[in-house]
Design a protein that fits this description.
Order of helices and strands: HHHHHEEHEHEHEEEHEHEHEEE
Distance between the termini: 76 Å
CATH architecture of the largest domain: 4-Layer Sandwich
Shape: elongated
Largest sheet: 6 strands, mixed
Number of helices: 11
CATH topology of the largest domain: Purple Acid Phosphatase, chain A, domain 2
Number of strands: 12
Length: 405
Amino acid sequence: MTETSDTRSAAGAAEGEPRSRVQRLMRYLPLVAPVLLWAVPCWVLLHTGQHWPLPVALTGTALFALGLVGMPLAMVRGHGRRQEDRAAIVGDTLLGGVWVLFTWSVLLGVLLRLALTVAGVGDGQDRARIVTWAVLGVAAVLLAWGYAEARRVPRVRRLDVRLPRLGAGLDGTRVVLITDTHYGPLDRARWSERVCETVNTLEADLVCHTGDIADGTAERRRAQAAPLGTVRATRARVYVTGNHEYYSEAQGWVDLMDELGWEPLRNRHLLLKRGGDTLVVAGVDDVTAESSGLAGHRAHLAGALDGADADLPVLLLAHQPTFVDRAAAHGVDLQLSGHTHGGQIWPFHHLVRLDQPAVAGLSHHGARTLLYTSRGTGFWGPPFRVFAPSEITLLVLRSPQRSTG
């Protein structure tokens, strides 16, 4: 018996040791990641056989070193206690720019160089310089295009969603989803007005905002959020908190949305009735709410559905797609979420998939639960969207009993 206990202890220690090593390594990730982001493109663009004149090499290296030091400092100053918008804009822009440079330095630094070698193009210096100019050219084009994509009013994405339990009277119900507006350091009050004008052209029965309204407090970003008060819906405008509200006095955002005429669905539901049929529209606080320490805030699906007829179809608002497991366990018919931004800047969506069950679009979970994940209406941080366009979503709910005449 003692030998068995010792064996188990040894096995536990063996398993625990690799885990503790991984945990220790993860602590250094915030320090290692910026170094890699700046060092890799610096090496690929300047020091892999280009033989640039010494002033060019020294100046380029100094600029990358300045970015490595300046970006974290600007982001801390912009997003930390000081909340300085100008510093945030500088830090965020540098982050987006270096991410694109890093990505294409890796891809073209390997693939293009290999292709040029196989094709027998030039000597080593010629190939190295071609790679440098190709990386810089691709990055410049993508950043210019990505900036325009981030700042534009999102396109409307329309899709029909068939819900087997939806009554015929609710067939054709128009649900508009906006999310992740992220009003922030760049003043987007005019953009906000135009987004709301676009929403109002869609003649929605229900308009939903699934959180991450802004980066900053309601008092600070009020002017950018104020146009949300002009949004029209024939039945209701509903809102749930996202994780970013819990970085910026979430209750202030709940109060402001209530003041603007939206229904904050904080672990509760309302009933949408049409044509003799009923849809339960429920919402939960973000999954980060409880750890925020804000009294009374937590994600509580059972509380949100308390008192609702179990035979009625349920539309659930939950900021993060990861909540869908709980939604499926409760038999929710359709969950609407945001949070992922579709990755925002390619290929970041691969990292998002490590944390979330879906990145964008409609997906099936469990026996009957559908999840729609929006790529978001605005952008967070870096003012770029590359191969991940923003959207305003129009979902038309369809019943299997609808008339075909």
